[in-house]
């Protein structure tokens, strides 16, 4: 289990490092702890997350951020890999709270099955101007056809990654 978590952290780090150098400002990497609650028994979740802003087409929902994620659900002996795109909702620069919401896809693996997933994310980041790190609180909901849906409340700490 620890090897898988370490491997996931390395993969998320490589994904964040592979982003174009022009996107270095605003890239974050971090992780945290969550609590899953739904039809399963409640359990703890460990999460590793990347936050990679991308320059995309001129669309209404801008800026778009790619968030690769790895979750370990030790209570169910399961892990999950996700790739989500979130809209970092723009607010006035002097506001310390930054809400976001998004959609994505994922893959869940347990000893009994591997299932494709659809994800929904909603949350907010909190950062004071003098801090280099940020805190985030989010709801991450995963649903699949052959999967017991999971809703996780995550508390995350994100740190700047790459050149500034």
Structure description:
- This protein is mainly beta.
- It has a single domain, classed as Porin, CATH 2.40.160.
- It is built from 1 helix and 8 strands, in the order αββββββββ.
- The protein has an 8-stranded antiparallel β-barrel.
- The chain is globular.
Top keywords for this entry?
8-stranded antiparallel beta barrel, globular, disordered N terminus, Porin, 164 residues, mainly beta
Mean pLDDT: 81
**How do the strands line up in the largest sheet?**
1-2-3-4-5-6-7-8
Give the N-terminus to C-terminus distance in angstroms: 34 Å
Based on the coordinates given, report the CATH architecture: Beta Barrel
Low-confidence stretches: 1-25
Number of strands: 8
Label the structural class: mainly beta
Number of distinct helices: 1
Strand content: over 45%
Give the count of structural domains.
Answer: 1
- How are helices and strands ordered from N to C? HEEEEEEEE
Q: Write down the Rg.
A: 16 Å
Described by the principal axes of the CA atoms, the overall outline is globular
Percent of residues in helices: 10-25%
Write the CATH fold name.
Porin
Largest sheet: 8 strands, antiparallel, barrel
CATH class reads Mainly Beta
